[in-house]
Amino acid sequence: MNNQEKEIKMMDPLVYRKLWGFVKPHKVKLFISTIMLIIALAGELYVPILIQKTVDNQIMAGLTVEQAQNGIMHNVIILFFILLSIVVFSFGQIYLLAILSQDVMTAIRHTAFNHILNQNMDFLNKTPVGKLVSSVTSDVETINELFNSVFTSLLRDGALIIGVTITLLFLDIKLALITLLTVPPAFVLIYLFRIASRKVFRNVQKCVSSVNTYLSEHFNGVQIVQLFGAEKKTSKEFQVENQNLYLATMKQVYVQATFRPLVDLLSSISMAVVIYVGGKYLGKDMISLGILIAFINLLSKFFDPIKDMADKFGIMQSAMAGGERIFTLLDSPQEVIEEQSTMANDIEGNIEFRDVHFSYKKGEPILKGISFKAAPGETIALVGYTGAGKTTITNLVTRLWPIDSGSILLDGKDINDMDIPTLRKSILPVLQDVVLFSGTIRENLTLGKEIDNEVLVQALKAVHADFVLNLPEQMDTKLHEGASNLSAGQRQLLSFARALVHNPKVLILDEATSNVDTDTEHLIQKALPVLIEGRTSLVIAHRLSTIRKADRILVLEQGKIIESGTHQELLSLQGTYYNLYQLQFNEDL
């Protein structure tokens, strides 16, 4: 725990420095906001002085009633304009800082989103989606709280404490010094509260995380809980997690409940010292009644910021934790680097693997010396048992993962020497799990590009996805989340149409027919010749019926190519492919 505290303490300035990088472009707003705050505080601090002058120079000065009333009226008018100025400048400061905060939060969210988009698959696979979403939303929002609640309050509170101290010394040095003797215990109390609060805050966060994990896990698996009759056991386990959170929260409440009364006690002691000593000084004509009233007024303003700091400390802890998470994300290295390409845009589609080795984890090789060529327009099928490395090969072609050794060439050029936009425009996949976004069918087909309606219609008809044209709103039909208002087969056909619309030179069909019914598979079989015509195609399929007409079939086993040939050639070998075919079709060959 000590090491962790030390680490976070050392990172606090780092978070502020990184945050300053986003604030710096808006430093003019910050400067104006700070000036407005200082003006508003100056007005607040002048009010007790004005009251002091009214008491000493009008009420207690032995003036006539008329003179006193005129003087008081004059000061009341001044007070009105001071209070009006305080309202105006306070509003301006809060509003301007809120604009600055939203500008900074928007910039951080956009930067974090783009950073995640350009991350490599290793990072994305290791980082839970929920954590990434939380970083871009919740963690950024905590920084927003840091601006709106904490930064404004701390700046105001700090300035107010300094201003009150200076004003007290200005009014009467001796009484001010005696009064300020009660202040050091308050700062010691703040320091002790900070240590205790940090400890209980971390404990609460740990328990909250544990509860969230338990809820997420068991809500996702609620069907298993019900089927195995584990409701009572699960309820008891959650009761333990919930009780731990309750106890941790009560410790936090205890720390906060202890601090405020102690600050109130110190405030009362300071007030008692001012009244007692000030009363003596007043009796000896060492100070005026107006100064004593001003001291009492100012002293109440002195301890209010201390209480406010305690209230904001929990928000500050949460904001610092959120800041650490979001800036740790932004500091994560991006291995996907854009480079200037010397490659022309007219890709032919010639693919070559040269002794490619690859592993997701160091020491656990997935591909072991893969070498093959695919000529432009050739269809290469990849088959093998689960875990043989079929999908990995297709991922490497698009540079989703960096290879360990060897090289992958496209038209004789190493793909590492090509810029990623050109590479991925030339090679498009039809994935096993079809990804369609919330929006219209048209938007999912074009993905932001300007494509003629006629081209879209032709693509839909070519892959037998013309069911879209029979929908009431046709291509403007809105898709639900995950395109749940379409069947699995319809989603697969739309992914075919999308690939055809973008007209790649190389096509990857990853288990393209594994999740569809027989009728849809028949439609896909009819669409495949249109889809792959004139394109280099890498096809992965568990249903071997879909690859019988492939120009060449590569059989993989434990990361190596063990067989290569046409459908009939591989059957005649009676090897691994033959066994796979027998298992699937149960035919006498």
Per-chain topology:
Elements: H1 2-23, H2 27-59, H3 65-117, H4 121-126, H5 129-171, H6 173-180, H7 183-220, H8 222-227, H9 231-283, H10 289-331, E1 351-361, E2 364-374, E3 379-384, H11 390-397, E4 405-410, E5 413-414, H12 420-426, E6 427-430, E7 439-440, H13 441-446, H14 453-462, E8 478-479, H15 488-502, E9 506-510, H16 518-532, E10 536-540, E11 552-557, E12 560-565, H17 567-573, H18 576-585
Parallel strand pairs: 3-10, 3-11, 6-9, 9-10
Antiparallel strand pairs: 1-2, 1-4, 4-5, 7-8, 11-12
Structure described in brief:
With 589 residues, the chain is of the alpha/beta class.
Please, could you describe this protein's structure?
This protein is of the alpha/beta class. It has 3 domains: 14-171 and 319-333, Up-down Bundle (ABC transporter transmembrane region fold), CATH 1.20.1560; 173-286; 351-585, P-loop containing nucleotide triphosphate hydrolases (Rossmann fold, 3-Layer(aba) Sandwich). 65% of the residues lie in helices and 11% in strands. The protein is built from 18 helices and 12 strands. The protein has helices spanning 2-23, 27-59, 65-117, 121-126, 129-171, 173-180, 183-220, 222-227, 231-283, 289-331, 390-397, 420-426, 441-446, 453-462, 488-502, 518-532, 567-573, 576-585; strands at residues 351-361, 364-374, 379-384, 405-410, 413-414, 427-430, 439-440, 478-479, 506-510, 536-540, 552-557, 560-565. The strands form 3 sheets. It has a 6-stranded mixed sheet, with helices on both faces. A 4-stranded antiparallel sheet has the order 2-1-4-5, with helices on one face. It has a two-stranded antiparallel sheet with strand order 7-8. Helix 7 runs antiparallel to helix 9 and helix 9 runs antiparallel to helix 10 (289-331). The two termini are 68 Å apart. The relative contact order is 0.08.
